[in-house]
């Protein structure tokens, strides 16, 4: 069962292929209760997305963790976990 307490925003999907993923179709917390699939995200104090989880039937099927340069929006690292495998991309 996915622990969603640390996430503060929810979305229907994402667009594009570049990282960090661009999440689209915002959902209210009450709207995810009966959804089979959605994306949950967490932002830092600068408004940058630091984590994304794809939730499928209340389990996390895909997880992204992003680290940024201190002074801007560009990524330093993306750690992607899917199907039990973790891949790290350095920028």
State the helix count.
Answer: 0
Task: Quote the average pLDDT.
Answer: 94
Query: Low-confidence parts, pLDDT < 50 over ≥5 residues?
Result: none
> Radius of gyration from the CA trace?
13 Å
Instruction: Classify the secondary structure makeup into a structural class.
Output: mainly beta
**Element order, helices and strands?**
EEEEEEE
Total strand segments: 7
Strand count, sense and closure of the main sheet? 7 strands, antiparallel
Query: Taking strands numbered 1, 2, ... along the chain, how are they ordered across the largest sheet?
Result: 2-1-3-4-5-6-7
Helical proportion?
A: under 10%
- Anisotropy-based shape: globular
Question: How much of the residues is beta strand, in percent?
Answer: over 45%
- End-to-end Cα distance, whole Å, is 32 Å
């Amino acid at each position: 069962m996915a622990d969603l307490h640390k996430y503060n925003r929810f979305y229907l999907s994402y667009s594009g292929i570049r990282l960090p993923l661009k999440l689209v179709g915002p959902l209210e917390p009450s709207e995810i209760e009966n959804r089979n699939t959605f994306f949950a995200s967490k932002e830092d104090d600068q408004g940058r997305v630091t984590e994304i989880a794809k939730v499928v039937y209340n389990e996390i099927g895909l997880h992204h963790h992003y680290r940024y340069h201190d002074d801007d929006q560009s990524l330093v690292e993306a750690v992607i976990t899917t199907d039990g495998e973790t891949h790290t991309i350095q920028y």
